[in-house]
Amino acid sequence: MSSKLLLIAAAGLTLGACSTMNKNIGQEDPALGEAAKYNAALQTINPDPVYPPGSAQPGDNGAKGANAVKRYRSDAVKQVESMQTTGSSGGGSPR
Q1: 62 — phi, psi (to 5°)?
Q2: Tell me, what's the pLDDT at 73?
Q3: How far apart are CA 62 and CA 64, in angstroms?
Q4: CB contact set of 58 (below 8 Å; sequence gap of 6+)
Q5: What SS3 state is found at 36?
Q6: Are the C-beta atoms of 78 and 71 separated by less than 8 Å?
Q7: Max intra-chain CA distance, the chain
Q8: DSSP label at 6?
């Protein structure tokens, strides 16, 4: 009878330990799974995309690309517009 009681007590302790150990699975890191969500978002097609003016639009027949190739071959490429992205200099290491 005492061996059965000992076996029941050991089983109870074992099950009790399991319930406290696995209590917070998935709550260790709030960003758990963010990489998979980010990758899925990158691969999802935007059903209502916004195209910048003057760019290729859906249904274009390649005339803009052909004109760009002609300008490249005739050395009449459009000048690149430069823009400043920051107002201050970088904080790199001094030389």
Answers
A1: 90, 5
A2: 94
A3: 5
A4: 51
A5: helix
A6: yes
A7: 100
A8: H
Using the CB atoms, write b or e for 68-82: b if 16+ within 10 Å: eeeeeeeeeeeeeee
Instruction: Quote the tokens at residue 22.
Output: 């696995």
Phi, psi for 38 (deg, rounded to 5): -65, -45
Residue range 13-57, pLDDT digits in tens: 776 665 555 566 666 777 778 899 899 988 888 888 888 887 777
Residue with tokens 């390649």: 62
The residue that leads in pLDDT, 73 or 9, is 73
Q: Fill in the amino acid letter for 26.
A: G
What is the rounded (10 degree) CA torsion for 81, 82, 83, 89? 180
For the residues of 29-90, what is the DSSP string, one character each?
A: -TTTTHHHHHHHHHTSPPSS--PPTTS--TT--SHHHHHHHHHHHTT-PPPPPP----SS--
